[in-house]
Amino acid sequence: MAPYRFSVITIFPELFKPFCKTGVFGRGVSNRLLSVSTINPRDFTTDNYHSVDDEPFGGGSGMVFTPLPLYKAIQKSKKSTPGPVVFLTPAGTPLTHARVVSLSKLDGITLLCGRYEGIDQRIVDLFVDEEISIGDYVLSGGEPAAIVLMDAIARQCSGVVKEAASVENDSFFDGLLDHPHYTRPAEFNRKKVPQVLLSGDHKRIQKWRMKMKLVETLTKRPDLLLTARLSPEQKKMLTEIREELRKGSPADK
Ligand code: 6GU
Fold it and tell me: Which class in CATH covers the domain with range 4-164?
């Protein structure tokens, strides 16, 4: 299989170097399951200062990314990288697991990182296929968001995460949060690991984990239960959990 291609348009390419060498993503790159290149709009400037920004028409604070270097960077990216041009911006559509999965099924993606107050709108209108935000807060630039998106897409590319089961157990895979995890020691600061996990009874353990996924989701992100597709067994469990919580009894047994 050809690697999934990431092309990143950024004036700070050095930010991506350590990420591309580290952890799960780094291994995906070494194993040629992922490939990353960066394109610096500053390389397409012609003035003595290599400036990529200018004052906004109409006045106001901050600076705006000038269109020509971005245009040239996008054209260069399109020559090497298939897939959509995605602009990372707090004004974009909030990123979801479903969108990550669908983007991971393509052959590649161009990630356009803005800085300053924004980029010239004509670049968005003419060349951007999709605008994505990673949450309702503001970053100084799109780069951390691009890294978030790259990491999330990479996990969904087959072979990048060694154990396919790890991806299937991730939070959001089935629309629910993950269950809690425990490892040695069996007692830590007087807190014991739930007894069932030491029982060796795999059926009971599986059932406990399914229940705890529902407890986690119900207590931390009840909104997810409106769209999660639950099995009849999960629906029955959820009713029991709601009952237990209503009575005030602990739900982690
Ligand atoms: Cl994608 N970019 C910036 N600059 N800020 C953000 C964001 C993106 N997502 C949330 N905040």
Answer: alpha beta
For residue 53, list its beta bridge partners.
65
* Fold match, 4-164 / 187-247: no
Q: Convert the pLDDT of each residue in 153-187 to its tens digit.
A: 999 999 999 999 999 889 898 999 999 999 999 99
137 Cβ closer than 6 Å to some ligand 1 atom: yes
Report the chain's mean pLDDT, rounded to a whole number.
Answer: 96
Catalytic annotation on 3?
Answer: no
**Binding site membership of 88 for ligand 1 (Cβ less than 6 Å):** yes
Determine whether the shortest distance from the Cβ of 141 to ligand 1 is under 6 A. Answer: yes
Instruction: Report pLDDT digits (tens) over 110-152.
Output: 999 998 789 999 999 999 999 999 999 999 999 999 999 999 9
143 is catalytic: no
More confident call, 229 vs 249: 229
- For the chain, domain boundaries: 4-164, 187-247
CA distance 123 to 139: 20
**Does the C-beta of 10 come closer than 6 Å to ligand 1?**
no
The fold for domain 187-247 equals: Trp Operon Repressor; Chain A (1.10.1270)
Told to judge if 187 belongs to the known catalytic residues of this protein, a careful annotator would answer no
User: What pLDDT is stored for residue 249 in this prediction?
Assistant: 77
Alpha carbon of 207 to ligand 1 centroid (Å)? 39
